[in-house]
Amino acid sequence: MLFAPSRLPLQRFRPRRLRLVPGSPMASTLAILRPSAPAPLAGPRGRVAAPATARVALSSRSRYSSARVSLGSDVAVGDALFADYKPSTAFLFPGQGAQTVGMGAEAQSVPAAAKLFNQANDILGYDLLDLCTNGPKEKLDSTVISQPAIYVTSLAAVEVLRARDGGKDVINSVDVTCGLSLGEYTALAFAGAFSFEDGLKLVKLRGEAMQDASDAANSAMVSVIGLDSEKVQELCDAANEEVDEKERVQIANFLCPGNYAVSGGVKGIEVVEAKAKSFKARMTVRLAVAGAFHTSFMQPAVSRLESALAATEIRTPRIPVISNVDAQPHSDPDTIKQILARQVTSPVQWETTVKTLMGKGLEKSYELGPGKVIAGILKRINKGAIIENIGA
């Protein structure tokens, strides 16, 4: 199971430093914090429907108007159009770390899903399906490959669902969506904010930019298991007292109770690992990622993303898409562009997002794409949460 360590009695664990074995369940669960490249999915200006090649993004009904809303300074956080959204059914999309060799195979039996992989090959310049289904795993796990792979496979899962009995009704019932880090781009594509093709181009660029930023810095990430967020913050503060400013650490992923990821300079991460036992952490797990994602270490990637987003047509989503940055939905296209650029250096507010949705009355969720990472997180936050996985 995804969170197997947390189900065992606390006293049986002693804080320890682990290194993930690539492909292990823990690796898949905890590496979700890797970011990915953005890309748009949308149709002609002023319409909510995407082009025929991007039907995956849209359902035929929505409770929300597609009118654009300019956010004033008094609504800088949150959104005027979606301020009073009341979720009942959500589509949730996974992030990096959910990839696994063999994904995408099921989608080939659904023509609309298979078509997405063919379109991806033309945009990416390589055979994405072959890498998804055959690996090698080391290549599929790389930042620049896994992000486009998860984006395409997750949207293919929407088409797999659409082809099932009752699948169209499920898709039409969705009234809110969000995704974990990279998954936010998938959610925006599903909501019609940009086209499948544009979204994939953005995701490709994002992965490359994040990898380059990681290569330029000696940074890392570690997951701290068994502490609440306040204790993890105290642990970070203690570590930062012992290292130079360039080595400092911070919480980068607020995933769920007892599972928070810390990013920063390698020396700072090493101090976190060394001090975790004294803070009564269950364990620390060094993440097999390229660098300190969702921190200022990723700042070099921001300008590249800003340029790409500025050149991309983004529309008002047809349903609320909850941002990783502030756990709020946004409808103004310019605001969405700003939020996506900020996302790579901002902590992921997934725990707040899920708790907010639950508090607003969310009844059922669907995790679309490879793995069941999100399902595990939801169950950790609310054992009674109803969620179904739709793979591809």
UniProtKB/TrEMBL annotation:
InterPro entries membership: Ac_transferase_dom_sf, Acyl_transferase_dom, Acyl_Trfase/lysoPLipase, Malonyl_CoA-ACP_transAc_FabD, Malonyl_transacylase_ACP-bd, Mitochondrial_malonyltrans
Residues annotated as domain Malonyl-CoA:ACP transacylase (MAT): 92-388
Any GO molecular function: [acyl-carrier-protein] S-malonyltransferase activity
Bilayer-spanning residue ranges: none
Signal peptide: none
Pfam families in the cross-refs: Acyl_transf_1 (PF00698)
Tree of life domain: Eukaryota
PANTHER family reported in the protein's UniProt record: MALONYL-COA ACP TRANSACYLASE, ACP-BINDING (PTHR47170), MALONYL-COA:ACP TRANSACYLASE (MAT) DOMAIN-CONTAINING PROTEIN (PTHR47170:SF2)
Protein name as it appears in the record: Malonyl-CoA:ACP transacylase (MAT) domain-containing protein
Taxonomic lineage: Eukaryota, Viridiplantae, Streptophyta, Embryophyta, Tracheophyta
